[in-house]
Amino acid sequence: MTLAGATMSGPTNTEDAPSGLRHLASVSLFAATVLALSNLPASELPIPWLLAFTVPGAIIGSWSRLDRPRWLRVLFAIVLQASACYGALEWVGPMTRPAALACTILPPLAFATTRNHDGDPSLALFLSFCVMLVGVILDGVHMPLLLAYGAFAFLSLHVATLMQSYRTSKPSRTRTPLRAADVMATSMMMLSCMVGVFAVDRTLSCLPSPSRVNTSDDNDGSSNGPDRQVGLDDSFILDGGNGILSELTGEQLARVRRPNQGPVETDLYLRCGFFTIASMDRWQIGPLTLGAQSSADGHILRRPRPGYNVDQLEVERFGGAAKFVFLPPNTVELAGLSRLVVDHRREWIRPKLPSQDNYLVGYQNLPPPSRGANLSSRDVQLGLTKLAPNIDVERFEQLLEEWQVSREPRQAMAAIADGLAERCRYARSEPVGPFDHRIENFLFAEIDRHGYCMHFASAAALMLRMRGIPCRIGVGLYGGKVDATVAGARMYGSQHAHAWVEVLYEDRIFIFDPTPPDSRGRAFVPSNGPNERSDPEVEINESLLDPMMRLLSTLVGTPATWAVLLALVILITLLPRRQPKPPARQRVITAPKARRALQKLLRALAKAGHRRFPGQTLELFAADLAERKRLPAEVGTAFASYQEVRFGGREFDGERAQQMEHGIRAAIAMRDADPA
Amino acid sequence: MATPHSSIELTARGKVVLWLAGLAAGAAWIGGDDNARLAASMLAAPILIDFVAKQRRLHFTNVRVAARRTVAGAVYIETLHVEHQGRRPLRNCQLYEPRSMRGEPAVLLPTLIPFEPQRIEVRQRSLVRSHVLERVFVLESQWPLGMFATRSVVSAETDLITEPMRATLRTDVLDAAADAEIAPVDRSMLPGPEFQALREYLPEEDARGVHALRSASLGTLVRRVTRGRMPRTIGVVLDLRRPPGQPRGRGLRRCEWSLGACASLVEELHRRGSVSRVVVVDTEPEQIEVKGPAQLIDLMTLLSEASLSMHHGLAPELLADVESLGHCYWIPAGGFTRAPELRDMPGQVTVIVEEDE
Q1: Interface pTM, i.e. ipTM
Q2: Burial of A531 per CB tally in 10 Å (0-12, 13-18, 19+)
Q3: Interface check B151 vs A, CB under 8 A
């Protein structure tokens, strides 16, 4: 037997629901729909087309409340929709592809939102969710919009559940007013939903996607495989999102040592990836031509340059670093690794599957290129001089001219490094300012131009490309710390993640690091808000809290943390719980004074010849006295007072004490009057 | 006794969202796409939160209800005292009693604060003649997001006596036990104590009994009742035996009507001032002499528990008390109209059967 079965013949309207709840349902659903529509890019879906696909549906949805013949409504809907489409066509021209996609979703969304009948909220929520996703796919994630949409969508879902219970049942006459606890519970539920979204997202990101491996497998064995675009997780996002650096979340990532136990350089760069396609917000790795490694257990990248030694490094990887291969500059060969995916021309190497095998890497310490050295002729092929599509060239040019940056690579690098060091300061927080892009805020904000290595590298790379110098952004590890357990070794952790610029010369890749030297390889801590400003003194003088905060930040950023957290929450939820003990009932304690007064009264009555029988209640005793006409009013009142104290929970106050006293006097008077 | 417990299950909404979340998560895993992962997260989060925040201890709720006596099919307003004995308040809970709320909507309870009893009034109707010692209630809640529904069964130990639905008896049947109507002047000649009362005139009654003056003053027909004209004690035999060879499961409708007729007859006789000596012929025969309200309640309780029995013979002494009376009603609830005991009854016997038969 279910309630659904029971309510088939019951009332199915929401008129019994409080008006506030009904209004909240309408408002939250409408807000969620509007926010979802706002997320659609206006450039892809022009406003006239948006209106053409929403207004008719909204009008028909509102009109459906009226009782009109169905054919009339259908006719009106056709005419209205056709007119709206014609208007949009005249106004902005033919329909775009996104508009064509939207036309299947938006009319029913607008209709269900405005009608808001029995099952409409669920349908409208689902459609608005689809619209939201379309917006995200077309235009990326706009976090404030997404958060606001999530809040209203979850609120709407909650209110729709409450409304449904009013539809399927009859509210009792006892209505509880809305309490602060109810509002708090709803708010906590919404907040939990938002945290839940993040937790599930992080948990899902733990799962290794087979598509990345499969793509590599497809190209395995062919030296000239098709170009491919690596997934979004390899993007270089300047707002500190899911970039390659943010995935390096393990405490210890790599240990590097020399086979001869010699010391490893303190300024060693270990590249694990690069980005070539410039953008104001998100650099991307660009196309890769994947192939197999040159030998079964290693790969030769280039021939050693004569006259320079080939040094060896042994690299040991831990945790999340298992899916990367770290290479020092001017690497010539790699040994000890199999099942690699290699882009030989771009010097991009990754394992097909995460592997923690140690490997040896041979590299040469070459001096900086001389002035006049030839730049790479592959720059056009590799697209290393392309600028970001929406870059404000004029503003950048002014800066380059101010810093007197020439087209000569060495001079340009030096001038840009000096300019950046003078103009911007290093801070482990996001740049803030009036501009749309963080890199513009980093360079052109009026006050407090700050950023971290990603912003320094991105700005420098853009400026170099404006001067025609081919370059890309390299990411990986820098610095490290001495590992006391192994002689000469250095340990690299997530706090040593770093980004720099790689300038491609004809015979080598030169590392140009525009980040101030004392700030290189320091962990990035995401800002708590756009207006947060960092305090340089605090950054320099690290307090005791900093390592803890870094650890906390690392834990929060680790997907596995969220997965474990989710599992724990579910486990705790499923644990059986005992029923709580009921609170102790308030015991009625007879006031001792009242009992003593009653005993006096009963003794006086007994002396007067009116003894109470054992087990006789006061009521029966009083009735017996009254029947014999031996019950003075004062004695009756005294009995009533005692009963109020004994069984009514009243206090034995002065008034009742006085009534008892009067009763005792009356009983004594009875004894004196009738001593027999 | 029903064991209090709670169960949780996905609602239709939850199933749809779970499917969508699963598909999106699968797409995110296979394709490694961030947008698919976002979609999966936004779909899975409400399911997860709903599961975690779900009110699963509905069975910590205590329902108290007073004993009730009702007639089958009659609507009544039941007062329940609902007290939640869990840790957290119960919100948006629906209460339903399957036995007595068929066709009625569930009642939406106000927020139940722990250990604060709430008084709830529920419209109910018990359709089936019965006597239950325990009432079973179902509590259901979909709070907060409606992805899961928790359902709990809670029981309350109390009596619910559903008496048989009353049957309408013909006036001549009711008056069969009365002597022939004669002139009031002979009233004092009749046996029994002299007692006179007025009651509403029923159709098909003898018009000579109408009290003209009182009817004129009240504007409705009122007749005179002289108690002395009714025999003091009337026998009623309720025969619940099936005829020989009749299988189980047949004659249930007739049985219900007969029980209702018995209840109506005894009530009417009691109202008219007669004493009914009722013999219920069952597997374990019982005899009740209905002298007052207490015995009437006992008889009704007996009728609410009655059921048909297999055919069997009767001990001769069982009907001895009834046979000594001047008039007896015989109600063959099991359909055994040719019972030898009925044939051998010495006095006047009126057999009460349903009209269709």
Answers
A1: 0.77
A2: exposed
A3: yes
